[in-house]
Amino acid sequence: MPVKATSNKPQATSCKLQAPCSLQLEVCSYKLAASPNLLPLAAYPLPLPHMSLLQVSDLHINAATGPVLRGISFETEALKNIAIAGATGSGKSTLLKAIGGLAQPTSGKILFGGKRVLGPDERLLPGHPQIAYLSQHFELRNNYRVEEELECLNQMSEGEAARIYAICEVDHLLKRRTDQLSGGEKQRIVTARLLTTRPKLLLLDEPFSNLDLAHKQVMQRVINEISTQLEITCMLVTHDPQDSLPWAHHILIMRDGLVVQEGTPQALYHHPVDAYAAGLLGKYNELSTTQADALGMQKNHFLLRPEAIQIHSSGKGPQATVEAVLFYGSYYETRLRYLDGSLLVRTLHAEWKPGDQLFISLTA
Ligand SMILES: Nc1ncnc2c1ncn2[C@@H]1O[C@H](COP(=O)(O)OP(=O)(O)OP(=O)(O)O)[C@@H](O)[C@H]1O
User: For a designed S-S bond to 83, which of 201, 244, 298, 350 qualifies (C-beta 3.0 to 4.6 A apart)?
Assistant: First the structure.
């Protein structure tokens, strides 16, 4: 019987670093039965090419209110784009924070380049030197120039930093004050600031959630360049399948603190384990037995994507009545009344109107 994650948010504490400048770190604090002792700072060698970049094994995080992560295991290689999808409260942010050393595991292991990632209870300064976490709640100091903000964590030469600023499309903003920026510009500056610390893994927590289409497209371009030009592995939490499907090499589907399915975008889109997984990656129809039988499908219960059904104005086969036709720019969605339920069908053209009787079949 799965344990439901609670709806209480974690205690996010802000840890202000003073030197060389202040940076907000989001650290999750959980009440643990026993906190491990402080361990000495470890050396962080780069992972060898044959090694997994990241290995998460049986990761559990318990909050005072109940389990948040309940035994997560997966591994990934360098330069594979990983997307994490899941309903609100399924544990996506907590997983990212644990990977970044910002949330303390209750049990289980996170290895980065073969070495254990220490949690915030085990390090004086929470976080991992080669893992950067871009929070949904990033901050810039007020009344500073962008170039001053960017200097604060910079470990790079002038030329290298200039490349980062160009990739993040902030090079034209360097002389601006931080209170004269849009949300999207601020986000790219925080991203550039993180990149000047030379991370090997960049964790992006819903980076598109507050952006309009134009800023979103810029950020998508920036993220692509970060992995291709800078060779930094990116892991992205997103609610939108339009962000994850074309970008990811591998997707993790989370539910109630568990990874319930993982695989390539194609495998997950076409073969979801259940309606929950199907719904996270796009629209779907869940056919009744009657509907499935009439379409010649064997199973009692069947999930069908809207584009897996064809509409014909004449012919033979099951009939359906048009209820609504919705225009989405590059395609139409037609809602049909079909036997004991409805059906959503995606088409490029729509020559029919509500009330029309049509024939349907499965796409070959
Ligand atoms: N420190 C904590 N104490 C208590 N509950 C917590 C704590 N951290 C997380 N939770 C709970 O665990 C669940 C998972 O939270 P998390 O923020 O990781 O989910 P999420 O999938 O990222 O959600 P969203 O998509 O809304 O950002 C939520 O129900 C949250 O309230």
Answer: 244
